[in-house]
């Protein structure tokens, strides 16, 4: 009799565990239904980095802009730019000037700035959730410090000017139009040199003065995906933890 009672108890417990598991799976799947994320996947060319004077990873920023109303959504910015940590310099807007111009004094307004440690590996990936079907302009701006060339030397013997902030070649700006429908893929175009002159951001077409800088990012792929099913969605946590500088 005791054997049969124990078996009934274990069977009931097993059924309860299975039911809880099924409910949890259904809950997780249901929570990701009808949601989309834009994923940015970047491959960084380490050989190009090693050829620069400082051999440090590039500084870059990723953000989205609503073409209908101009609203912006910050996706990612590397540590130095995002936290203003430039080793003794309070601010270096010439590094990624377009991002500096767009997000100047707007951190409280956007409320979604995300800064993280500068990637040291070849691959970098970041995702941001957006409303399904929404349309965006995707922007990526990148600068590699100490990436000097004949056109952008450390010291210009003609003008007798030194590259004060060691930016080397100007920041490059990439852009693509995105529609947030699952399965869509995009490869942004490298379209502008981004410079800061007289405290104003100037966007100039790429020309032959840009050499090694155009090879810092080997490839950039953007795709619209469904969020991965997870039991605890960290996106629902209001407090954002900023990654510490590595």
Can you put this structure into words, describing what you see?
A 7-stranded mixed sheet has the order 4-3-2-6-9-11-12. It has 246 residues and is an alpha+beta fold. The chain contains 5 helices and 13 strands. The protein is elongated and about 90 Å long. The termini are far apart. Strand 2 and strand 3 form a beta hairpin.
Strand arrangement across the biggest beta sheet: 4-3-2-6-9-11-12
Helices, by number, come to 5
Give the overall average pLDDT.
79
Distance between the termini: 64 Å
> Major beta sheet, specifics?
7 strands, mixed
Percent of residues in beta strands?
A: 25-35%
Element string (H = helix, E = strand) = HEHEEHHHEEEEEEEEEE
Strand-helix topology:
Elements: H1 2-32, E1 36-44, H2 46-50, E2 59-65, E3 72-78, H3 79-83, H4 97-103, H5 107-110, E4 115-116, E5 123-130, E6 135-143, E7 155-156, E8 161-162, E9 171-179, E10 185-186, E11 189-197, E12 200-205, E13 217-225
Parallel strand pairs: 3-4
Antiparallel strand pairs: 1-5, 1-13, 2-3, 2-6, 6-9, 7-8, 9-11, 10-13, 11-12
């Amino acid at each position: 009799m005791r054997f049969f009672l124990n078996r009934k108890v274990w069977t009931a417990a097993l059924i309860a565990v299975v039911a809880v598991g099924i409910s949890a799976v259904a809950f997780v799947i249901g929570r990701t239904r009808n949601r989309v994320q834009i994923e940015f996947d970047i491959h960084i060319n380490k050989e190009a980095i090693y050829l620069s004077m400082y051999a440090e990873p590039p500084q870059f920023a990723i953000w989205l802009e609503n073409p209908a109303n101009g609203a912006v959504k910050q996706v990612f910015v590397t540590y130095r730019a995002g936290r203003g940590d430039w080793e003794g310099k309070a601010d270096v807007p010439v590094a990624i000037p377009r991002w500096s111009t767009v997000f100047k004094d707007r951190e409280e307004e956007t409320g979604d700035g995300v800064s993280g440690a500068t990637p040291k590996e070849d691959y970098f990936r970041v995702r941001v959730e957006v409303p399904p079907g929404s349309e965006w302009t995707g922007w990526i701006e990148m600068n590699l410090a100490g990436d000097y060339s004949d056109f952008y030397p450390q010291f210009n013997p003609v003008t007798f000017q030194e590259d004060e902030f060691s930016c080397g070649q100007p920041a490059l700006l990439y852009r693509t139009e995105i529609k947030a429908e699952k399965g869509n893929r995009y490869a942004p175009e490298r379209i502008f040199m981004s410079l800061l002159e007289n405290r104003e951001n100037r966007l100039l077409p790429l020309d032959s003065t840009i050499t090694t800088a155009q090879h810092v990012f080997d490839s950039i792929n953007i795709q619209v995906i469904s969020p991965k099913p997870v039991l605890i969605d960290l996106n629902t946590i209001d407090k954002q933890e900023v990654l510490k500088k590595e």
